[in-house]
Design brief:
Elements lengths: L2 E4 L9 H10 L4 E7 L11 H8 L5 E7 L7 H7 L3 E5 L6 H10 L3 E6 L17 E5 L14 H12 L5 E5 L6 H8 L3 E4 L1 H4 L4 H9 L6
Parallel strand pairs: 1-8, 2-3, 3-4, 4-5, 5-6, 6-7, 7-8
Bound molecules: D-xylitol-5-phosphate and zinc ion (ZN).
Length: 217
């Protein structure tokens, strides 16, 4: 079964604990924290404090997506805050192999995110150092953007590349009732969705919709 990871970026920040409770009770598997620094991406969102304040409120798997420059500076802070998995952007790491080792040395699962233009070849020498690959299906920085179709062949190719390695294929950006079946069919194992869940009047129904196997259109 594909995992659903609601992205807090689209939640009501004035009621975060309630929003988390809603999606947890609604059947979400993971909680996706979009951390942005205003440098790597043109937006600023939240820091370790928000993660730690929600850690005691939820038993969901905390999936921290760092869209920040030099992420190695904050790995320990997010581990202490309660991250179960930390994903760094390949394009933000001069020494990506070392950063992934640092994450694992902290006892946290390690993920690497690829922007839409970044080729899969970046992964060639780190396949045994990762627990997740995040395929960005939008240019990072904002929720509510349009799905970039070139992510589909990229997901299919990644699935081949990984073979039977225990590495999640996570897709993030523009996931909706229309695109979810397509990315699942291509090989995604974790779907991140912000607008399609928190932007809906009934987040629980939205999560159920994303979980359905069949194509909706
Ligand atoms: C964008 C973030 C995504 C985004 C997804 O930089 O990484 O997680 O919040 O939002 P939607 O699902 O609204 O495209
Ligand atoms: Zn994200």
């Amino acid at each position: 079964m594909v995992k659903i990871a609601p992205s807090l970026l689209s939640a009501d920040f004035s009621r975060l604990a309630e929003e988390v409770k809603k999606v947890e009770e609604g059947g979400a598997h993971w909680l996706h924290f979009d951390i942005m620094d205003g440098h790597f991406v043109p937006n600023i969102t939240m820091g370790p404090q928000v993660v730690s304040s929600l850690r005691s409120q939820s038993s969901l798997f905390f999936d921290v997506h760092l869209m920040i420059e030099k992420p190695e500076r904050y790995l320990e802070a997010f581990m202490r805050a309660g991250a179960d998995l930390i994903t760094v952007s390949a394009e933000a790491c001069t020494h990506l192999h070392r950063v992934l080792q640092m994450i694992r040395d902290l006892g946290v699962k390690a993920g690497v995110a690829l922007n839409p233009a970044t080729p899969l070849s970046v992964l060639e020498y780190i396949l045994s150092d990762i627990d997740l690959v995040l395929i960005m299906s939008v240019n990072p920085g904002f929720g509510g953007q349009k799905f970039i179709p070139s992510a589909l062949p990229k997901i299919r190719r990644l699935k081949e590349l990984l073979g039977d390695r225990p590495v999640h294929i996570q897709v993030d950006g523009g996931i909706s009732a229309e695109t979810a079946p397509l990315v699942k069919e291509a090989g995604a194992t974790v779907l991140v969705a912000g607008t399609a869940i928190f932007g809906e009047p009934d987040a629980v129904a939205a999560i159920k919709m994303l979980k359905t196997e069949k194509k909706l259109v």
